[in-house]
Amino acid sequence: MKVITKEHEKVEYGKSKAGIVIHNFLSSFDETFNQSSYAIFSEFFKKNENVSKWMIFSDYVLNDKNKPNDVITFSILPYSEDFERLKEKINGLSFKDIKNLSRVNTEFLEFINKSEILNISILIDKNMTLDPINEREALKTCYKTAINQVDYWIRNEGENENYLRIKKAYNVMLHEVSKQGVNLRNIRNIEIVSNFIAYITFQACLLLKVDIIGWFSDRDSMLTHKDGKFSMPVIFDLAYNLFHALMLSKDKDYAENFVFGLPEQTGDLWYDSFNRIPDLIAATLADYDYENNISSHSKFFPVIENVITNKEKNLIYKIYALENGFEAAYLTFTRQEDKMPLSECDFSALCWHPISLALIRTYSNFAPWPKSST
What we know:
The chain is of the alpha/beta class. It has one domain. The chain contains 11 helices and 12 strands. The strands form 2 sheets. The chain has a 9-stranded mixed beta sheet with strand order 11-10-9-6-5-4-7-8-12.
């Protein structure tokens, strides 16, 4: 693990340092991300450089024993069209998640390909932990280091409500991982997803002038984790604090606002239509057995052939958990120009490398996105 400074200083178990930690898997991902695939990422934002408001929707397939892959997908869209109008358009093209469909509407696939949408998907080894030696001690160090950072802020800026809330959140997480026999699965997922969304948002803000960028997650146990102990989903705090530290490492006067869509506890999400985009991608990748070149259902075939193979719209990576650390690879689906049979579509690795939050509760709060205090 490393504390975010200009040198990304390494932190060992139990060391009394102050800062926000990035996990080792993210360091490996960073090396790969900034190789050949970065040109596609940066070109997407250059094409939309006049847009200052952005949306990131996400969905996940994690810890599903019936699927060969664990997948996290983020779909990035410029906020350049009326939210409600675009939501209704998507709803008309795909009114259900893919798990509830027997076939996927071809017009929905065309919409994804023709719209300004960039999907970033990360496949994760099924056996991945945050640290190959002692995951629990790594998490304890992570939260203790963050608490030290909040204490530093309090000493220098006073006990404002936000700092006290954040410190309480980190203490709750520290208490959880300190329990003997604790099940770390959900905490691990929270750390992985919060690291990735913070990093991707940070990278976007480095490329163009962003007034505000919002993350809208599918409703998941990560958002409801120990919700009685937190005033808001703890994953939001972890994501924002990492984003904040990353931005400060580049510009101490940064003005970009990172905000979060707050889903309803039950019923349909107010942004559910948008989440059908990452749902489609994540479900397809999770189902695809790329070692044996098979999918479990024919409904996934057109998604692979028409969307996943479009590398200008999809950046796909895999994090490999090794005995002594992590490796990250950039992956693409490829098929021959002469219309190779769909069953022969192939996955090929292109490169290898051994403090306050604004919550958006409804559309009326979402648009036109006034400045917040983030």
